[in-house]
Amino acid sequence: MPVPSKSVDKEILAILEENARISLPEIAFMLNMDVEEVARRVRELEERKVITGYLTLVNWEKVGEERVCAFIEVRTQPQRDVGYDAVAERISRFSEVRSVRLMSGAYDLAVIVEGRNMREVSNFVATRLATIEGVVSTTTHFVLKTYKQDGVIFENEEEDRRLVISP
Amino acid sequence: MTGKRDWSEKLNPVVRHMPPSGIRRFFDLVAEMKGVISLGVGEPDFITPWHIREACIYALEKGYTMYTSNQGLLELREAIARDLDLTYGVTYDARRELLVTVGVSEGLDLAMRALLAPGDEVLIPEPSYVSYAPCVLMAGGVPVTMPTSMQNSFRLTADTLEKHITPRSKILLLCYPNNPTGAVMGRRDLLEVAEVARAHDLIVISDEIYDRLTYVGQHTCMASLPGMQERTVLLNGFSKAYAMTGWRVGYVAANADFIAAMTKIHQYTMLCAPITAQMAALEALQNGRESMQKMVQQYSRRRHLVVQGLREMGLPCFEPGGAFYAFPDITPTGLSSEEFAEALLREEKVALVPGNAFGPSGEGHVRLSYASSLDDLGEALRRMARFVKKRGVQVRAVVNM
User: What backbone phi and psi angles, to 5 degrees, belong to B126?
Assistant: First the structure.
C-alpha cells in the first residue's frame, strides 16, 4: 500500500529516528517507494534542518572508558536585544558542552558538560563557563550513572520470551 | 501384571479422537535446535507497554486481589462499551450485553457451548485458526469448513457460504483480519455475507481479535452492519493490539440473552477473569491508543518488507491486509507445506508453520509471522531465498536488510 504523500516525510523521520543507520534502499523498501525519491526527501529534510544530525549513543562504561558528565545550572544576565541567546550561543561553541537549553524556573540555562574526569569538568566550569560575560552563577551536578538517554534504556536486557512456534 | 492399564478408554471420545495440533511435531523439532530464527510465533514481539504493566503493579499495591463480578469489572465493561461505540458506532449495555472473559479463547468456547445443541453445524472459512474446529467438536457441534483460496484473496463469498448451508447450520464463525492468511473482508464483502446469514437465520460469531491490526482501509465490525448486532456474538480482546497475550483478557459483546447464557457457563467454570489483568486492560483502553498505534505502524512496515521479499524470491504471496501473518504459496518449490517447513528448519534454521496446520485448504502455503525484528526478518528472508533457490525457484532478488 503506498503511503499517502503528506505523511511520507514523517514516516521517513520516524524510521530514521529509530535507526539512523538504516540505508536508503531499506527505507524505500519499507515504504514501497523509489530509492531516488527517498534520497531526495532525506536530502531536503537535512537541508531544511528538520534532520539536524545522526548520532550514535554509546555506553562508554562498557568499554572501560571513563567519562564524566555534569548538569550545570547556569544563571545569566539577559542582554538587551538578544536576551539569553548570545550567552547560550557562546556556551554552545565549546566542544566539552553536549547540550544547552533555556529553562523556565530557578535558573536560566541547563548545560550538559562531558569530560574524561571530574577534574577536567570542574576546570572547564570554573575557568571557561563561569567566566563568560553575562554568566552570574553556576551550580554543578555530577552524573553518577546513566540509565536512559535520548529515549534509549542503557541496560535493557529484555529478551524474546515467546515460544518459537505457536498457532 | 507389569503393564499399566490404558485409561484412555475412559476419556471423552470426542477428546480422545481429536487430532493434536498440526504443529506439535514442529515444537519437538525446534526444541532440539539452537540458533533458530522463528517466524512461527503468533504473538506480538513487543512487551506490554510499560504504563499498562505499571497499572497492574499499582493495582496489586492497592490490594486488588479479589474476585470481580462474574461479568468482569463494571468499569472495564463500560470502557469497552465506550470503545466499541467510538470505534464502530455500535452500542452495548455494559451491564447486560458485555462479558469479560479469560481471553478470546474462553469467549469462543462459551459462545459455542451456550449456543450449540448436539449436531448443530458451524460454518468456518478455511484455512482457519487451529482452535475453531476442536472448540465446535467439544461443544457437541459439527464443524463445516468452507475452503477459501489465494485467487479469491482468502475471503469468504456469499456464494461459498450459501453452498455450505444445510438445515442444521446454526453458526457462521468468522475471523477477519484472518489468522493465518492476513485476509481482511471489506464492508461490501461482509454485507453480502451478512445478508445470507440473515436469510438463513444464522448466528455470526465474529472473532475480531486482529481488528486494530488492519493496514488496508478500515476494519468493518460485523455487529455494525444493518440488522446484524442482534445476531452477532462479537469476540475481541487485548492480546494482539496491546501486546497482552499472556494476560488473558478478552470480552464478548452480544445481545443480553446470549450474554446471560454465556455468563452462566462462565460463572460455573472461570468465575471471573483475573482482577489485575482486568485492571491492566482498563488502563490499555483508557491510555493505550498511542502505544498501540506505534506497534501497528511497526507491523505495517514489516508487512511490506516480508511480502515483497517473498515475491522477489519467487514465492507468490497474497497481500495481507491485517493481522501479522503472510501466507505465501510454496508450490513452486515442489514441496508440500510440511516438507517445506521441515526442510527449511533443518537446512536454514528458520521456523514457520506449515499451512496444512490450518486445514487442508492451507496446503501449498506456509504461515510466516512478521511480528519479529527487522533484523530477524531480513536474515530469515535471506535464508529462505537460499533455500528456494536450491529447489530451482527463480529468485529475482534477495532482500538486502
Answer: -125, 145
